[in-house]
Every structure is written in structure tokens, then in C-alpha cells.
Design goal:
This protein has 265 residues and is α+β, with helices and mostly antiparallel strands. Helices cover 26% and strands 42% of the residues. The chain has one domain: Urate Oxidase (Roll). The chain is built from seven helices and ten strands. Strands 1, 2, 3, 4, 5, 6, 7, 8, 9 and 10 form a ten-stranded mixed beta sheet that branches. It is elongated and about 80 Å long.
Length: 265
């Protein structure tokens, strides 16, 4: 018998003891733990670091969950996640914690190499990515979360001004329910950022700046226009059933933001 075996036998397992209050806890676990992982999107793999949130439902009769098992599972093998294997990872976590319901969320920076529109200069562009899964009585629900920055140019400002129009950076944040694990993250990003007055790039030369300035001027959009256009493209995207969208314009002529929400989840 090892020292570890003797220690485990000698120490009481308090969290497995019975609780007398008869109250189910909907979610209990760990959050704000960072862990390296590889995101797999089709043939592309990308290393990143995720903020992880891992929880299970705790039965009314059980005093506590086994918090160390969440961390042990994260460290069991190099973490590689995709929309295809996320449901199985969630089920495995629930089995390890002897839970009927569970939820996981991995939120991380996600990078795409983009080439500038005129000069063709390549550079990385960063986005916010969330891989989320929820296990319940009907199975696993997989959600994909993205925040995509774009440029917006005000139609009213363009209409009333002799020259110029105010523009600003905007964040389009979408959460979609994934029904086809073959859904491409990169392709969805491209579809979303195409709904702004103009998309963004990491590296631009003067010809690129001229192109972007003029392109945005030719495609003015209110926050209402952008969110409706995003909703339209998501509704036509295969592999998605339901979505939540928020668009926030960080106004350049006001000390506040304009924002809108469409929730079809």
C-alpha cells in the first residue's frame, strides 16, 4: 500500500457526505482558470489559452462536488477541442463528477491571418471565441460564441454633411446554437464581418486606408442595419439553429454607445 493510498483511506471525504437541506444546486464548479488548448476548425489547428468555466448540477442530498476533478480532467491530456468533440468532452466531465447535467465554456482569443484589401499585406487579426456546451436530459447543446470587430459609418451623418461622415469601431457579438459540427468558425467570422460598413485588418498601407475609407462611406449602416443584416446571414447559414446577436457602436461623436439585441435562441 502506498502512502497516497493510506492517506486517501484515512481522510474523510466530506463533500460526499449527505446534506440535509434538500436543495439542488443548478451549477457548481470552477471558473477563471486559464488553460492552454488547441482549437481545431476543419484542417486548421490553432494553439491558444482559454478562460475555462466548468460546472455540474449537484443533487440535493450531496454536500459538495469534487472540485479537484475538474482540474484533473483539464490536465489529463493535451486539450484539443472542436465543435465535433466538445459534446464528448462535456459528457466525460459529467461522468467523472457523477453528474446528470453539466456545462463547459472555453473563451479565448482566436486569430485569423488576413491580407489587406489592396496591398495584400498579411497580418493576424484577433477575435473573441467561445466554445460552450450544456449537457441536460435531452443531450448536449453546443453553442459557438464570437465577437467580431468592424467599422460602422453613420447614414444620417453622411446624408446631412457636405463632406465626410462620422464612423466608429463596432463589436458584433453572436452566440449560435450549432447543429452541424462541420460548421466552419473561420467562414462564420467572414460572414459576420461582411455585415459592417467595412471589415478590419491588422496591417494596412496607404492604398488600403484609402480603400477602407471609401468603402465604408459607400456602405453606411446604423446599428439597426448591421444587426438585421447579421440576423439575415445567420438565418441562411447551414448548421445553425437559433442565435443571439448584440451589436455595440462605440460612438465617435458621443460619450456613449449605441447598441441593439436580437435574441432567437
Amino acid at each position: 500500500m502506498t502512502v497516497c493510498d493510506m492517506t486517501d483511506r484515512a481522510m474523510p471525504d466530506v463533500q460526499s457526505s449527505r446534506d440535509q437541506r434538500d436543495i439542488v444546486i443548478d451549477q457548481v464548479g470552477i471558473r477563471a482558470i486559464r488553460h492552454p488548448l488547441t482549437v481545431v476548425d476543419g484542417q486548421r489547428q490553432q494553439a491558444s489559452i482559454a478562460d475555462c468555466e466548468l460546472t455540474v448540477t449537484l443533487p440535493a442530498e450531496q454536500k459538495g462536488t469534487h472540485m479537484s476533478r475538474f482540474v484533473a480532467l483539464l490536465n489529463e491530456a493535451p486539450l484539443s477541442l472542436s465543435l465535433a468533440n466538445l459534446p464528448d468532452w462535456t459528457r466525460r466531465m459529467a461522468e467523472r463528477l457523477h453528474a446528470d447535467s453539466a456545462a463547459v465554456a472555453f473563451r479565448l482569443p482566436y486569430f485569423v491571418t488576413k491580407t489587406a484589401p489592396v496591398s495584400g499585406q498579411p497580418a493576424l487579426m484577433d477575435y473573441h471565441l467561445g466554445l460552450i456546451a450544456k449537457l441536460g436530459p435531452s443531450g448536449v447543446e453546443t453553442l459557438l460564441e464570437l465577437t467580431v470587430p468592424v467599422t460602422s459609418l453613420c447614414p444620417c451623418s453622411k446624408e446631412i454633411s457636405k463632406y465626410g461622415a462620422h464612423n466608429q469601431r463596432s463589436h458584433i457579438t453572436v452566440t449560435v446554437r450549432v447543429t452541424d459540427p462541420a460548421l466552419s468558425i473561420d467562414a462564420l467570422i467572414a460572414r459576420i464581418e461582411a455585415q459592417g460598413s467595412c471589415q478590419l485588418w491588422g496591417l494596412l498601407k496607404r492604398p488600403d486606408e484609402k480603400f477602407i475609407t471609401e468603402y465604408a462611406f459607400d456602405h453606411p449602416k446604423f446599428v439597426e442595419d448591421m444587426i438585421r443584416d447579421v440576423a439575415g446571414t445567420l438565418a441562411q447559414t447551414a448548421g445553425i439553429h437559433g442565435y443571439r446577436i448584440t451589436v455595440e457602436n462605440f460612438e465617435s461623436i458621443h460619450n456613449h454607445s449605441a447598441w441593439a439585441i436580437i435574441d432567437r435562441l
